[in-house]
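Good day; I would like, with your permission, to put a structural problem before you. What I wish to show you is a protein chain and, alongside it, a tokenised description of its three-dimensional fold. Please examine both parts with care and let me know of anything in them that strikes you as inconsistent. Thank you for your consideration; the sequence and its tokens are set out here:

***
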Amino acid sequence: MKVSELMSDSTVSVTPEESAGLAARLLSRHNIGSLPVCDEDGRVHGVVTDRDIVTRCVAAGDDPEHTPVERLMTRGVISVNPGEDVERAAELMGRGQVRRLPVTENGKLVGMLSLGDIARTAALDMEAARALGEISGNILKK
């Protein structure tokens, strides 16, 4: 099965200059845990999570309304192509300890794939379980 068959193509993103406050509101409104950070051309520069906002901004005493996302985002994002096999995407999630992958084509964001997307597909239960095990196992080792 290909990533394009499971990914969500209705993505929400922010630009690096937008505020952590806006990112937090978007995360809440769309009930998601991470946002790709893209330039105006749709090229992915990073990912910001709800945890990034809390630990790198709020807990540090910074004002989310005046803190640009680029100060909080994770750079060097792992992404996957829509034509990749889902099994490969699950492997990347496990290795990278992430639950969501931006789906990019020619460097531009075209969707998001989550561990939940994989888990909802009965044929891929084992891949999702393996990826979650790697993510959780690596977190517990830290």
Q: What stands out?
A: Helices lie at 3-6, 20-29, 50-58, 86-96, 115-119, 125-141.
